[in-house]
Amino acid sequence: MTVEYTERGMLKYSEKLLERFRNPKNIGEMENPTVVAEEGDPQCGDMFRMFLKIENNRIVDAKFLSFGCAANIATGDVTVDLIKGKTVAEAEKLQIKEIAEALGGLPAIKMHCAVLSYKTLKKALAEYHKSSTVSQG
Amino acid sequence: MRVYLDNGTTTQVAKEVVDAMLPYFTEKFGHPIFPYSLGLEAAEAVERSQRAIAETINAKPEEVIFTSGATQANDMAIRGVAYANRHRGRHIITTKVENPSVLRVCERLEKEGFRVDYLPVDGEGFVDIAELEKRLTEETILVSVANVNDEIGTIQPVDEIGEILRGRKEKIYFHVNAAAGYGRVRIDVRKIGADLLSLSAHKVHGPKGVGALFITENTPIEPVSYGYISMFKLKPGTENVPGIVGFGRAAELMAENFDRDIFNMRRLRDRLMAGLEEIPHTVINGPRGEKRSPANVSCSFKGVEGESMMLHLDLNGISVATGSACSTTKLEPSHVLTAIGVKAAVAHGTIRFTLSRYSTEEEIDYTLSVVPRVVEQLRRISPVKPEQL
Asked: pTM for this structure?
């Protein structure tokens, strides 16, 4: 009964998360990205758009837009930090757990935010593979 | 600047209330259960509060019993009347826009074999009276409707509902959750024809953890908790005497300041609403004018998510509430906004501003200088464009 009816009050954000929310470093549009991917649905209250600029299989720049709560903004921001400068192969190894850990942990009911930013990244990378296969072929 | 605009959630306790309560912690700390002097002193204080509160709703003092809050009062009223009248029928009617302290109790009763109808509301949150009449049966024992909606401020036609119920051959008990309405609209239990009515102290500058249930003498009701009976058969256990004293004082202050408070809040409400409406792609939820709580402004900012908005306003010193799902475990938007037909994507961007006796014009003007900037900022980083919603 307690879990089902706990609606507010349990929401404690870490200082790290709040700092990211207040001052995100990677949020905004990107001109001429290599790939753009979108996940989520405004009907569900959270949505990401991720832009990646990839050169020689390395993510040289990344940005994101967010329609969502503080955890949504913070997870998006930290995800971008975790993959920037990495090779595509390295970025593919990123785990949901790492996103949450980089924020000093996430409240249980906000884990879906980390999942969503992870899924957006996966989609963007899949998009990249598809387009690079097409251009090579 | 610090601006508190979440008075629908809770209010600042009035200084006069704190002063009235203090002696009941350290000097007059007796238990009303025994008639020695300390006990009598406590019992008299509880009775004084009964009188003060009864006066604000046109009830008799003995019709007011104290609870731990409106949540408990609602539970006692709904389950108590349901259990005591189940031999007559097992049908209850409420609305889709009630507080969870009513809805969850009704859902529980459904599991126990009661049938509950949840009435739809129109686009402004008004309950459908024709639908209510249609659903009344010989099995119906209880109707529960809040006089003011806590999220969007709709003032329900409870007088009209009471009249319909009084016109029925079989007695149908009428419960009104007045937690959001107390201190915002005038309440007369006789005019409403209410058999039960729930109140909360902390929404009217009283302390948290104390509420009241008005119940007429001839309403059959079963207690929902058991123990030593001190002053109230329906509510065993030790009375929260300091809290009850504080509630009584808050009720007196409410009565003294009522006209001025309402006038002030309505003026500030309309000023705030007009200012917010100048922000593009912004929708006011609920009715306007006389049929809206003078203390409530509910506003959806399209393309913006409510929790982020709430926290950004907090960074600017402004406290507000959000109807966003992101602040709940269920990830569904507010049931009230859904019931009035607000699309989920828009409901997520809803902020509720609620006023009190202590709200000022400076606070509203400051808020209006901050909100457009925050909305702008969040729309800039949003992949959802307001025009698409």
From this structure: 0.94
